[in-house]
Amino acid sequence: MTRDETKTMTREEWLNAFAHNLRDLFQEAGLALPDKLRISVGWPSVRPLGRKKRAIGECWDPKCSTDQTTEIFISPFLQDAGQVGHVLVHELVHAAVGNEAGHKGEFIVGAKKLGLMKPWTATTASPELEERLVPRFPTATFPHATLDATMVEKMRKKQSTRMVKVECDECGYTARTTKKWLEDKGAPICPCNGKPMSAPDADAGAGDAEDGEDEMSEAA
Prior knowledge:
Elements: H1 3-7, H2 11-21, H3 23-28, E1 37-41, E2 57-60, E3 70-74, H4 81-97, H5 106-114, E4 116-117, E5 124-125, H6 127-133, H7 149-160, E6 163-167, E7 174-178, H8 179-185
Parallel strand pairs: 1-3
Antiparallel strand pairs: 2-3, 4-5, 6-7
């Protein structure tokens, strides 16, 4: 691969090329990676935005895919090539031993052989594994710009306070609108009886967004 080609490498190309470069390490550990494998940057399905405990990687069983491909997602919050490498190795162990093993049994055996260290729900490489990973990076840096977790949280809170719940006192029909619209145009009309709806939480401007769990980062 030429220098010009590496400059245009996408993050997905980087991830899939890195996984290909890891196949010999997995073979040495007696672990067979699936032939059909896709790796992307994307939000894990569980706790993607948790403040203290945040899922940073996830492996999906090939039975979930319409073309029977093992899918791995790496959190958009990650940018450091070293951390991305640790997470990907962790998820590839899941791909090799099967998701039904969870973080026990065969998973622990395979993780130890490769050089991952506990806690098994997280992703930490031993110094020996770290030395073997770096030369296998397709490029020295991972071609991705991290998302700012603090800004994401601020925007979620800001968005959740824009919407105000309005309801019909007669039939209980509910809807949501903005506080500014209420101030400028008044409450909306109930479609059931044509009467103005009330806005009991207009002063608070409260939304109904749910907070995530407060725990520490992990890989699924």
